[in-house]
Amino acid sequence: SKLPEEFEEHAEKAKTLPDTTTNESKLCLYGLYKQATVGPVNTARPGGLFDMAGKAKWDAWKAVEAKSKEEAMADYITKVKQLLEEAAAASA
């Protein structure tokens, strides 16, 4: 399957997403990326009062823990494509 190659390609493309990309979308991509590369969440949820970003990232990863690595890769690719299309439409 070409999935891993396509995943790597879209991980690179994700770096070109505009600053207007919502935090929600970025967190979604983060969670799917971690699930695709690491698998289910393997760390404790950050407990620090001021680590809101860390908690949000952990929660985004935890939210997709039931997906296989392949499913996470496929979903990640779909999400990056969608965000790139939205960005292109917004700048048209």
UniProtKB/TrEMBL annotation:
Database matches in PROSITE patterns: ACB_1, ACB_2
Region entry Disordered, spans: 1-21
SUPFAM superfamilies recorded: Acyl-CoA binding protein
A Pfam family reported for this protein in Swiss-Prot or TrEMBL: ACBP
Cellular compartments annotated: Cytoplasm, Cytosol
GO biological process per UniProt: fatty acid metabolic process
Gene3D superfamilies registered for this protein in UniProt: 1.20.80.10
Single Gene Ontology MF annotation: fatty-acyl-CoA binding
Keyword Repressor among record annotations: no
Top-level taxon: Eukaryota
GO cellular component: cytosol
ACB domain boundaries: 3-89
Record-linked InterPro entries: Acyl-CoA-binding_prot_CS (IPR022408), Acyl-CoA-binding_protein (IPR000582), Acyl-CoA-binding_sf (IPR035984), FERM/acyl-CoA-bd_prot_sf (IPR014352)
Keywords: Lipid-binding
Assigned protein family: Belongs to the ACBP family.
Protein name: ACB domain-containing protein
